[in-house]
Specification:
With 307 residues, the protein is an alpha+beta fold. The protein is built from eight helices and 16 strands. It has a single domain, classed as q2cbj1_9rhob like domain (Jelly Rolls), CATH 2.60.120.620. The radius of gyration is 20 Å and the shape is globular. The two termini are 24 Å apart.
């Protein structure tokens, strides 16, 4: 569902985005282990777990237009805003199709590491605990590229694309289960490599320039229009009050022990030897390479370029 006027006061929203600088790399924001260098994707959070964590974000978080659109799109009686974040993308090649981090009863809000949610989603093993989530992505970018491409019918069917120019325009969708990606952004000669930015680098706003700094080192700088800004809003969608109550009472939540048992059973069925699996539960970082390899993200055929 497309919304042309996502926020009633977009200039106030942009002022809050400027106030949020400097920005962490996406991997640092999610505390991904073992990562040392990243691409040009920066992020910060305005709300997490239903709580506003950035001063001034409350009126944007409780967005009546998004709530009503989510009720319609998800046939939901109750819509509960849960998270909000800003994304800033530097010039880069197109990303691979992906899904957003899913939400599961008992496995959200830092109850398990963020990296663990990725294989949980791609494995398909935890759908009984999945919480439907509406995602509203709003853009503030009129530069070159940066299209939002999505596959509403799955990767086997044709994609659709939302293209710039757009300002304060949003698309509300099911991004936990609908594959999507950001298209190539900026001029090809300006694209950053996937490993161009150190994990601990920050994106600063200095006057009318965005500047990437690694400690005291000035790495890259960009004019304001060359950085793709988007704001991502998420909300739980419950089709009935009874389903919302079941979510709140935690009567059928996942625990790390349950997640570990389900993964071990499935990995053994896939042919993994028990002695090749870590002894600790799946929240231990030692599990990450095993689960990432066993449950990779689906990809388009190699003949289709990412543009």
């Amino acid at each position: 569902m497309r919304l042309e006027n996502a926020y009633a006061d977009p200039e106030a929203l942009l002022a809050l985005i400027r106030k949020g600088a400097p920005y962490k790399t996406q991997e640092a924001a999610h505390k991904h282990p073992g990562v040392t260098r990243t691409g040009g994707w920066f992020r910060n959070f305005w709300a997490l777990g239903g709580k506003v964590v950035m001063d001034g974000a409350e009126p944007f978080f409780m967005n009546d237009s998004f709530i009503e659109a989510a009720k319609t799109s998800f046939s939901a009686e109750i819509v509960q805003p849960v998270a909000m974040m800003t994304n800033l993308n530097l010039p880069m090649a197109g990303l691979a199709p992906h899904l957003d981090l899913p939400f599961f009863r008992g496995a959200m809000n830092r109850e398990v590491p963020a990296w663990l949610l990725v294989p949980m989603g791609y494995s398909g093993l935890f759908q009984s605990w999945a919480v439907p989530v509406a995602s509203a992505i709003t853009w503030f970018y009129d530069g070159v590229g940066g299209e939002f491409e999505y596959w509403p019918g799955g990767l086997d069917l044709p994609s659709r694309t939302e293209r710039p120019p757009y300002f304060n325009a949003a698309v509300l969708a099911d991004n936990e289960y609908m594959h999507h990606r950001v298209g190539a952004l900026g001029r090809e000669e300006d694209w950053l490599a996937d490993d161009a930015i150190p994990f601990d680098a920050r994106l600063h706003l200095e006057g009318d320039r965005w500047v990437v700094r690694d400690g005291g080192r000035r790495m890259h700088e960009y004019a304001l229009p060359d950085v793709r800004i988007s704001v991502l809003w998420k909300a739980y969608c419950f089709q009935s009050a009874a389903k919302a109550a079941a979510f709140r009472d935690h009567s059928d939540d996942l625990t790390p022990a349950i997640v570990t048992e389900i993964f071990i059973d499935d990995l053994r069925a896939k042919g993994f030897a028990s002695d090749a699996l870590p002894c600790a539960d799946v929240t231990d970082d030692a599990w990450k390479p095993i689960l990432d390899a066993a449950y990779p993200a689906p990809r388009l055929p190699e003949t289709e370029p990412i543009i």
